[in-house]
Amino acid sequence: MRVEGGGNMADARAVGAQIRMRLPSLTPLEGKVAADILARKDIDAATPLRDVAQGSGVSEAMVVKVAKKLGFAGFRDFRQGLIAYYSSDTAALHSEIGPADTAGEIVQKVFRTAMQALEETFAILDLAAFERAADFLHRARVRDFYGLGGSAQIARDVSHKFLRIGIRTQVFDDAHMMAMSASLLGQGDVALAFSHSGTTSAVIDAVELARSNGAWTIAVTNYADSPLARMVDVVLCSTAQNNPLLGENATARIAQLNLLDALFVAVAQRDRAAADANLSRTMRAVQAKRKL
């Protein structure tokens, strides 16, 4: 049974994240309407549905449909959510990087955008899903991690942390190797998949095979409605606002690294004595390689 990756829409910080997470499930026209509305920072409690519809060149019914597909009860609920979100300190953290920005402005904007990703990922985090993922990883016989490109780097980072406490994992970043790994997994094993978009075919194919063989499956992704998220047992969602220069993936990586750090700690806490003992052993082994 899949555990949903969504968070609490009542939290103003989560509104922008929840909208972005659902964008891939919209049609191109619906996505344009949603993007148009999100770009309007002037919406207030008096903004009528008619004005919003005219601004996007669509019917009022289409705006209501988009609002419902984004998880709101209707236009008024959508409007109130946006007002609360754009009034929050979290939304104010993001600002676009311009060609005339100074070094100081660039650093500030990059850092603040990363802070926004962390705040919003925390706001949408499903703690029940997080706990279940930690249980799966703790109890697993074999733990195989799948990811391509930047996602593979995140997988390697968390694999390194787990090795420090004596939990062995393997990272696969090649389609054929993923398939071979998945074919050997079974009950009591875990396939942990990393895919920002949730649409990477090599990762999806491997997860599908692993799950058909009885393995537990976990996805770390930016989109709760993506093909990968829909097929796994547990979804852990990150979120990040797109930036034309940095890209969405770069900012999401910060949130995912922190999310996986928390997952690592949660797994270690399930047998803290063994984790501490193994950490001491691995630290001594590394220290012996350092020159004084």
Q: Which descriptors apply to this entry?
A:
5 strands; 59% helix; 292 residues; 2 domains; alpha/beta; Arc Repressor Mutant, subunit A; globular; Rossmann fold; 5-stranded parallel β-sheet
Question: How would you explain this protein's 3D organization?
Answer:
- With 292 residues, this protein is α/β, with parallel strands linked by helices.
- The protein folds into 2 domains: 81 residues, Winged helix-like DNA-binding domain superfamily/Winged helix DNA-binding domain (Arc Repressor Mutant, subunit A, Orthogonal Bundle); 164 residues, Glucose-6-phosphate isomerase like protein, domain 1 (Rossmann fold, 3-Layer(aba) Sandwich).
- The protein is 59% helix and 8% strand.
- It is built from 14 helices and 5 strands.
- A 5-stranded parallel sheet has the order 2-1-3-4-5, with helices on both faces.
- β3, α11 and β4 form a beta-alpha-beta unit.
- α2 packs across α4 and α3 packs across α4.
- It is globular and about 65 Å long.
- The termini are far apart.
- This is MurR/RpiR family transcriptional regulator.
